[in-house]
Specification:
The protein has 137 residues and is an alpha/beta fold. It is 54% helix and 11% strand. A 5-stranded parallel β-sheet has the order 3-2-1-4-5. The two termini are 24 Å apart.
């Protein structure tokens, strides 16, 4: 059963030469069936690998290995409605964040998932979003 939605910075950390030991422990202790990524997260990761021809193989192979066993979530109507609520709330409060960040939060809220990110302070602006930082606790 899905429980977690992983942010781009979580997968990116796994690709580093020295990933966070705390993150590696979480990944090892959590069945892959319990976490997912958003389709845009996958796109961001692949784009990052493809943008420089000299680093494509260095990054694309590990990205493909890491993400092949992870469920990739689409952006659906329920997530879109949650995104709209988030954007309205943050705009009214003058604390808006990027559209993609509000959209990924919308997915997490719509599916009742815990959002795993290293950018806790940024996402803490979103009411009712449950956040965990698996990189440094």
């Amino acid at each position: 059963m899905l429980k977690y939605l992983l942010d781009t910075n979580i997968i990116s950390n796994l690709i580093r030469p020295q990933p966070s030991p705390i993150l590696l422990k979480h990944i090892a202790d959590t069945p892959a069936t319990e976490y997912a990524i958003w389709a845009i997260t996958l796109g961001e990761l692949v784009f990052g690998a493809l943008r420089a021809p000299e680093t494509q193989q260095k990054y694309l192979v590990p990205i493909n290995q890491i993400t092949k066993g992870i469920k990739v979530l689409p952006y659906d109507e329920k997530a879109a409605r949650r995104y709209a609520e988030i954007q309205a709330d943050l705009t009214r409060s003058g604390k808006s964040i990027g559209y993609a960040d509000m959209q990924i939060a919308g997915i997490a809220l719509a599916r009742k998932l815990i959002f795993v990110t290293h950018n806790v302070r940024h996402f803490a602006r979103i009411p009712h979003l449950t956040i965990e930082n698996w990189i440094d606790e």
